[in-house]
Write a structure and sequence with these properties.
By secondary structure, this protein is mainly alpha-helical. The protein has a single domain, classed as Non-ribosomal Peptide Synthetase Peptidyl Carrier Protein, Chain A (Orthogonal Bundle). The chain is built from four helices and no strands. The longest helix has 15 residues.
């Protein structure tokens, strides 16, 4: 995900940390929408706009996307571990 942000802003991914704010990256709301589309394509999932609205840091968006991944059908988030 950090790679997608780095490509979008044309900066080195090493410069982006979870606590980096989108303001620090110079991202506006249009940039954020484009980034969300790129993340959805890269991870083949749908993230509701509301899930990432108001998020200020890269880490907050990563958490929201991870939650969306866990909620995707077939993610197995609630499946038993098995073997016992």
């Amino acid at each position: 995900m950090i790679g997608a942000i780095a490509r979008s802003k044309r900066i080195d991914a090493a410069e982006i940390r979870p606590e980096t704010t989108f303001e620090e990256l110079g991202m506006d709301s249009l940039d954020a929408i484009e980034l969300l589309f790129e993340i959805e394509e890269e991870f083949d999932l749908t993230v509701e706009d509301e899930a990432v609205q108001g998020k200020e840091t890269v880490g907050q968006v990563i958490e929201a996307v991870l939650e969306a991944l866990a909620d995707e059908p077939g993610a197995g988030g609630d499946a038993p571990a098995g073997g016992e």
